[in-house]
Amino acid sequence: MDESGMDKTVGLRRKGWAPKGITPRQTATFQREERYQVLSAYTQRGIKLSRVYRGSTDTETFVDFIKQLLRHCNRWPEPESVLVMDNATIHCSKEIEEMCERAGVKQVFTAPYTPITNPIEEHFAELKAYAKVRWDEHIDLIHRDFGAYIKSCVAAGGRQDSSEGHFRNAGLTVEHPPSSGCADNDDQLS
Asked: What was the pLDDT predicted at 98?
């Protein structure tokens, strides 16, 4: 699970076409708009739970999301009983550790600065690429309600066929429970 930010710059074209010998140019006014966050829990079957909202993710928002998510999780070692997270400060609170412990859910933290070991990072890259490709088709919705556009992209992009590959690419499987070498909150993937 993780969070990722998006704003309307996701739809900007980075490449263009022009006749041979002429550099393509695009002229546009740029104004940084409101930023949205996508906070998602991702399983090998796709998105388990997701929120899209304006602003940034603070501890209160993250704790509230974890409370909601834990109602949908199983107890370790059942399927969907492990939360894989990076080491962001808001992910490492004592309150979250205690909530997970009470719910019987195991927390596993990726090694610092290794987004490749968290399958949701690949999902977010795919999500942003999808949002960019579909941009022109949904320009009216984007101008009317950008948050609704992001939600529609999340719904379309959280599919099982993609998520299984993202977990494989991150080197994660849940076929066999991993040995529990560490009992405290600093379990890490390497």
From this structure: 97
